[in-house]
User: Fold this.
Amino acid sequence: MRKKRKPFYKSLRFWLILITALVVAGLCVAIAAELWGNGGNGKKDHGIFHHGQQEQQTFPPPETNPYEPLDFYYEDGYLTCGAGKSTLGIDVSYWQGEIDWQQVKDAGIEFVIIRAGYRGTGEGTLEADSTANANYEGAKAAGLKVGAYMFSQAITVEEAVEEAEFIMDLVKDWELDMPIVYDWEYINETARTANMDARTLTDCTKAFCQTVREAGYDTMIYFNADQSHKQMYLSELTEYGFWLAMYEPVMDYPYKIDMWQYTNQGTVPGIQGNVDINLLLHY
Assistant:
């Protein structure tokens, strides 16, 4: 008696064919999605994402970082760049207390960015840094170049403009050698800025920088890498200086920056406790 053949759909061959077809179909869908997401040109995007959605490429991407990780190394305790000129500096606020600026200068520090004002993370009131003028006078007397920054917690364009006008009033009698910086930072989920979106933050940044520039000052934007990828449309801000906070032994950020805050736990003679140390890059 002939043995009854089992149905084809129960055979191993059938399942192998089915699985192969599903894998091929999945790959086709992924390739189509990649091409569609990049305008059908087959080119990869520039890696700028905001809350899980790719930015529409209506602006040119930021310039590519021209440095290699090995271009940076430590010399006499501080980071330097071997692929071009760089200048060592710090940024300070009330938290650094009283500073011996001559010791800072003698240690090789050439510039300082001073916090002149800030907006509170809760009520959102504007306040002057109580040590700002003393820091300015001490730094200038020691021969350091000086810039200023505003710690922002703005949640509207109007508040960003208010912050720009506030800091310019605070530094109106200062002789600035370096930019006025917009320093917006995410604090935590209870801060007034907890639900800030990329569109609003980018517009606030533009408003602050445009207001400062129109008044005749140079300006710069402070951010960390994660913030620049997820919370800002960085391509819309390339006309301003970029100041990156990245506390890593090497700088592998994909875009060209003007200044790198490479540590927030630096030690400098004349300052008790830790201080941020920065490397200004000259191209």
